[in-house]
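Issue: ligand-bound run for MRU - logging full I/O for the record.

Environment: standard queue, default settings, no custom constraints.

Inputs:
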Amino acid sequence: MNTTLPLPRSVEWNDTHITLLDQQALPLAVEYLELKTLEDVWKAIKTLKVRGAPAIGITAAFGLALAAQQYENESIEEFRKQLQKYRDYLASSRPTAVNLFWALDRMVASIKDVISVNEAKTTLVHEAIRIQVEDEEVCYSIGHHALSLLNKNDSIMTICNAGSIATAYYGTALAPFHLSVEKGIPLKVYACETRPVLQGSRLTAWELQQSGVDVTLITDNMAAHTIKTKKINAIIVGADRIAANGDTANKIGTYGLALLAKSFGIPFYVAAPLSTFDPTIASGDDIPIEERAAEEITHLNGKRIAPEGISVYNPAFDVTPNELITAIITEKGIITGNYKQEIQRLFAHQSSSK
Ligand code: MRU
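Outputs:
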């Protein structure tokens, strides 16, 4: 796809390795890592060198393709068993974003009819590339749908980074802002810094600045005051997993923003591809919420900022109940309310158009 966005790609396939934008080095440096083994891929996902639901899925898909190239046995049956082990290993890296499991399972399914190890190796590379290319198209489409909900000169709030670097390209919640620059539509974005790992200040502020979006950084506890004083028109966020009833898991702090949106009477939008939906889960209560290391809260830049021995609770995500969501913006269009039926319809339509 042709783009004029001045943004690096988060993941690239290079036959013998995966080139990964190191999202921990941003915004101070644009650095790349070479992932050469399955363990490198697992570690990169676990330690947030790559993060964001679609980017995690794409990286894991390339991880399986990479491990497959290094496999030496000739038996296709043995290969399938080994691939399942690789799949389970990468699936253990992070629990909440369903794109990880969606991409891994799609990779495993892609070789169900192949008859030789060589054919399987090639098929897996092609499938991973297809997942990446499709995600870019999907994000572009989400961006256009999202932009149709916004007006010239609107002020919009977002949290975390649901941007280009969290996907194949363009992003989900940030895609309309990138596209607004290309179309000359002025918008103002308020980015929450997103404690504890600061994906808002390190990544979203940087990414939007790169593409020339008018972005202002705030700390998370400034959200209510900012909505009031800066007359925020809407809040738009990404998603890590959307249950069959529309309940949505996203970065910790999202639920609070949805409650604020209701209180201020402004729309609360979730932008996400169909690969982020989990129709096997009835409601948000069934979404596993990742809890991360205490050091993410007790330390800042390696320096302790809390007393030794303090108890810490560090959930990385929260669940926004469907009734607080004004609309879910997908590549197939925008759904507003009646989420259970609308999501069923989206998936029925998707399987009939395959
Ligand atoms: O912990 P992270 O940085 O992987 O969390 C990312 C988010 O919560 C994003 O909003 C979500 O994955 C959507 S990315 C298009």
